[in-house]
Amino acid sequence: MLEVFSDYDSVIHYEFTPEDQTVNKELYLEILKRLRDAIRRKRHEKWVTNDWFLLDDNAPPHRALIVKKYLARHSITTLEHHPYSPDLAPADFYLFPRLKMKLKFDTIL
Question: Which residues span the domain enclosing 91?
Fold first, then answer.
């Protein structure tokens, strides 16, 4: 599975998780830690001013108590993704079209 985090400009962080691995609350927490580090390195101006937010879906790992505590402890602003609103998924408008263009002439086996 591919976990992707982006802003209006480009992809900030991505990770591949093994096919047989479920993204549970512990794994998602570790991914968030690496995301924060990526923001610190790649979007330092946003990091310094804490001028960024996280939009994820309502998957159980995203709503787990340990994740919520981590987000609160690090003052990470989150936006609620309305349930059953696939039309509001940013990946549909930003990520997938770009991936499609890049993969247009590649063969995936």
Answer: 2-103
In CATH, what number is assigned to the domain containing residue 64? 3.30.420.10
CA dihedral 32, 65, 80, 71 (to 10 degrees): -40
Q: Mean pLDDT, the chain, as a whole number? A: 83
Distance CA(5)–CA(38), nearest Å, equals: 10
Residue 50 included in any domain? yes
What's the average model confidence in pLDDT over 34-54?
A: 93
